[in-house]
């Protein structure tokens, strides 16, 4: 932006103040001060100080702050299925104003992706994080290492070739980040239109996601937003178990942790659609593995990035490397042993959500999925608490959702398609139309 507006600069701290005022002015319900909606908005604003604290690198205080606010939202999400009354609280801005605001924010965020650096929050390049053993998404960390400043010292042909490869990697990551954010925004708006039956609410949820300080600060982080986009569209496709399962499988292929959603989603589809959902998950995982293999082959042939073995990358893909208690970063850097009870509690939570509540609907799917992905933050060894995009879109959907008790699998999910249905008949009609029936040998 400085090329068009000399002296223009909006640092993260200033954006926290501006975005907080926007959230209060647009979404805060002043005539119902002591409402759950206002409490949720205050909690979303309170996530920003912890994020800034972590970005400044001032010790574990920021992670403790994020864990505290995260614990509040975890309790809020687990109690959400008990909140039956869901009054319609529309934003203070009409649909036209929200649409304009959302489009403007989206344009500025996309500009932030194009002009910003591809550095993670810990003030170290992605390559350094990978050398430290961070098991984040290999499909994206393989292609994002250098910023545009790498061209400054290029003198000979070898350096120029390295710079060209760095630009190719950076362009790949920026393109995927832009598409992923667009997918999140469009998915949230479509869920509001199709499943909440209110396009105004859909635009409001998408605008709130774009206003959040986290979205502006972590815009170029593909490993944050790409799984979030797949999870949002999985919720949007919940009426089609096969497609929803495939999207969750693809998300699990990126970061591994969506596999912990399987008990919850499996219990939702228990009465209808379970087999289709499982087949979709397996197909999504298989596609992720094939995509990783193709990417590694392309990188090896083109020389655009470091490759490594397929087995090690596959282990990173499914988060196997995050389970050992070693080489942590962030809050767990010097407290690895205390992660064991937290991991055990998380597994108990995932198993409990398969049984409770017994009657699951779309509202349960939203809140409990957000709770599972939020629970990952408490034991994720590398900057746990910072990967908010994994649950923030689902949290926003939970905050704005109406009463969805009627959206259960038995009524919302269509019956399995078979060739017999396509032909307009079922096997028992073979007997009904047989010559023996026409001859009266089968009782009518």
List keywords for this structure.
2 domains; 21 helices; 62% helix; 444 residues; mainly alpha
Mean pLDDT figure: 80
User: Helicity level, as a percent range?
Assistant: 55-70%
Overall radius of gyration: 24 Å
Morphology call:
globular
- Total strands: the figure is 0
Count of DSSP H/I helices: 21
Main sheet record: none
Written description of the protein model:
By secondary structure, this protein is an all-alpha fold. It has two domains: 12-413, no CATH class; 418-444, no CATH class. The chain contains 21 helices and no strands. The longest helix is centred in the middle third of the chain and has 38 residues, at 157-194. The model is unreliable at 119-154 and 420-444 (pLDDT under 50).
How are the elements arranged and paired?
Layout: H1 12-27, H2 36-55, H3 61-79, H4 95-115, H5 126-131, H6 138-141, H7 157-194, H8 199-211, H9 213-217, H10 222-236, H11 241-255, H12 262-268, H13 274-302, H14 310-317, H15 339-353, H16 362-377, H17 392-400, H18 409-412, H19 419-423, H20 428-432, H21 435-438
Helix pairs in contact: 1-2, 2-3, 3-16, 4-7, 4-8, 7-8, 7-10, 8-17, 10-11, 11-13, 15-16, 16-17
Overview in brief:
This protein is mainly alpha-helical. The protein has helices at residues 12-27, 36-55, 61-79, 95-115, 126-131, 138-141, 157-194, 199-211, 213-217, 222-236, 241-255, 262-268, 274-302, 310-317, 339-353, 362-377, 392-400, 409-412, 419-423, 428-432, 435-438.
